[in-house]
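User: quick one, fold this
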Amino acid sequence: MLHLAAETRPTWITEAMGALDLILLDHAHCEKKAASQALNLIFRYGDDAGLAEPLAALAQEELAHFRLVLGLLEARGLAYGRLEPSPYAERLLKSVRRAEPDRKLDLLLCSALIEARSCERMKLLSENLPDPELAQFYKSLLASEARHFSTYVDLAADRFGRAAVVARLDVLALAEAAALAEPGPAPRMHA
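Assistant:
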């Protein structure tokens, strides 16, 4: 369903549980960036009125998730602050073609794949965290993350056709798997 070309490596969950404070901080940043990406697409493609409403709703939901994660940080006595970005998204976005309308298609599909990876990682956290409250929190986000993936794919299919989307999604899913396979600075939601 999520169209990922590779599963998360088995050691990620152990690494993530050993650096849970960092994972939570990174998660907050990921939610903020996801909201920003949806808004950026609305601005970039202002002539495409059909993007505005679904992406505005998605951005609102991402900001609501951001606020929830901020609450978790505060409840655990952790400060929200700057964090060096994971190189994952930058690596993935190198696969985006420059010329329009290909760029639009690729940006929608890269956004979908990032949401798919978030969903996969949150599922792992929900199934493995020993803290039942935190495990339930991640379980509660799964449907939203999967829906965000579908929103981006459906928006792309409405504009480019299902066959073109599936073909390009196959290519970008391989790029996403390669971006994920390269080592990052520390355990992150997408590294």
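User: anything notable?
Assistant: Residues 12-181 form a domain with the Ferritin fold (CATH 1.20.1260.10).
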